[in-house]
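Summary for the lay section of the report: proteins are chains of building blocks that fold into shapes. Here we show the chain for TetR family transcriptional regulator and then a coded description of the shape we predicted for it.
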Amino acid sequence: MTSTAAVPPPRATYRRLSVEERRAQLLLAALGLFAHRAPDEVSLDEVAVAAGVSRPLVYRYFPGGRQQLYEAALGSAAEELTQCFTEPETGPPTERVARVLDRYLRFVDEHDTGFSALLRGGSVVETSRTTTIVDGVRRAAADEILRHLGRMGGTGEKPAGPRLRMMVRSWIAAVEAASLIWLDDGKQPAAAELRGWLVDHLIALLTATAATDPETATVVHDLLALERSAGPAGQLAERVIPVVVEAAHLLPAAPASD
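The coded shape description reads as follows.
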């Protein structure tokens, strides 16, 4: 009887990563660790283990050590998050903002560790570089909102005044806080519901600021002219007007006629 030599099992296919792919792999592993602990508590050995590589390889890509890796990881998350804010200037402004928020919340959902590292971690390490990275995301977001409000100083536009800019930056801060709370609460309520509430919040802030700031009043007037009854502004008006009517007794009494 002729014996047949055993056929060895096929070896697992190994694919060498490009420089860009390897760097992205290391940044992703680092973001996952920095999202849950302070940067000075994360060692390069842990990053290497999380990425499935050797410590010398981590140093090859980030010779500046942990701080360089941390800043690069923040920059990577910031760049991707900033891209979420880009939206063509077509359609009613509040519907554009809703689409921006849909992308933003999808990023938060799919990259929750990176998002947490960007916003929570950025305030832990007190360096000018990390502060600049985090604040750059906030400023980019504010500039995009002001652009859709017609106040970025483009052709035929006026740049935003201090009250309007402060209001938009305050809203961006509220969006950040709501997103982090959303992650802490197990991503409840549903993203679509959170997005709707955040758009309502922006409209409400604009309306309140318009009551005392002529520039914002002009912005709101121009914005409402572009809105649809079925859009966010129209739906909010339908819900809010009955509530406002209940406050009619707070208005000054009309002077008695002779």
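Put simply, here is one thing we learned. The two ends are 126 Å apart (CA to CA).
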